[in-house]
Amino acid sequence: MSSISLQNISKSYAANMPKAVEQLSLEIADGEFLCLLGPSGCGKTTTLRMLAGLEHPTGGTISIGDKPIVSVDQGIYVPAEKRGLGLVFQSYALWPHMTVTQNIEFGLRLHKVARAEREATVARVMETLGIARYKDRYPNQLSGGQQQRVALARMLALNPGIILLDEPLSNLDAKLRLEMRAELKRIHKEVGATIVFVTHDQWEAMTLASKIAVMSEGELQQLGTPDDIYERPANRFVAEFVGNLPINIVGAGHGKAGDGPLEDWIAEYLGAIGAPDTVASVGIRPEAVAILRTQENTSGFPVRNASVVDVLPTGGNWIIELSVDGSKLFAITGSTPRLAPGDTVRIGFAPEDIHLFDSADERIDFTHSA
């Protein structure tokens, strides 16, 4: 079994510093593709390194299957080389004086695999990753994408049940990143290994993972499927971090000092749908902001006039920057908007498309009853 369990894992580098990881608990199912997602310094790479055996946790237990590989309380620590894990770093760490074939078979040689089996394994993984034609080249004769494939092949040759990937695509250009994402999904499907993938790129996590663990300041913010993370963010941090175009966050109004027309409209809207009084802020994703074509409002919910500040084409989509009496709001559309800066439009959104947060920035679950 290649399931992974992390129970109350903590990591501290110094007594007078905040913990790099704080009481982290995760259950990763056998064959799952989990992405550890978060900004720089959130503890995701430290977590991966503790799982790999390159860092010692200061508290907690890590198990693979039903076998503990780390337990601070019990004094258990299985060395990295005995954990049966495959690891690919952000730096590909290829031996510059070895050919592609020699790099890929390096781990097999260390494990004293017989020559015939070694050659068959190397040939198979090179064919799988489409790099057989480069078998006699050296790393400096390869592109970044080809080097990435060699690093993956070297790891896959050992047939690990668990694969750990630390931002392995960050050095590639956009086209190669797209190709390698597809390659990783294919490898995961074919090999069936459990994969833990570290990234700060939310788009990468959304397209690759079966589960995403969002982290911030060493703590787990939310664990869920990509759809869960995007459609039901557990708090404001997750809502603001995940999304190709950032979510619109608006205060809930309630007549507080500093409220403006946009907040007043949101307060009116919340009253119309019967939202609880504990709402402190509202999140509206740009694709949920509807630009109404006529002055007639058939939704039954409050709409608002807004002026167009700018229209930004992105190739296939258009970002529309709006102003509600000086407060910014962003919308996005897949059809040509035929709008120009200075135009006045009416905007609205459906109750099921808004996200409600309390004063502690935690999600409020609320369903409008028509």
What does this structure look like?
The protein has 370 residues and is α+β, with helices and mostly antiparallel strands. It folds into two domains: 4-235, P-loop containing nucleotide triphosphate hydrolases (Rossmann fold, 3-Layer(aba) Sandwich); 248-364, Beta Barrel (OB fold (Dihydrolipoamide Acetyltransferase, E2P)), CATH 2.40.50. The protein has helices spanning 44-52, 100-104, 106-110, 115-128, 144-156, 174-191, 202-208, 226-231, 236-241, 261-273, and strands spanning 4-11, 21-28, 33-37, 59-64, 67-71, 76-77, 85-88, 162-166, 194-199, 211-216, 219-224, 248-251, 281-284, 290-292, 304-313, 318-324, 327-333, 344-348, 354-357, 363-364. A six-stranded mixed β-sheet has the order 7-8-9-3-10-11, with helices on both faces. It is globular. The mean pLDDT is 88. This is ABC transporter ATP-binding protein. Residues 4-242 form the ABC transporter domain. InterPro entries: AAA+_ATPase, ABC_transporter-like_ATP-bd, ABC_transporter-like_CS, ABC_transpr_MalK/UgpC-like, Mo/tungstate-bd_C_term_dom, NA-bd_OB-fold, P-loop_NTPase, Transp-assoc_OB_typ2. Keywords: ATP-binding, Cell membrane, Membrane, Nucleotide-binding, Translocase, Transport. It is found in: Cell inner membrane.
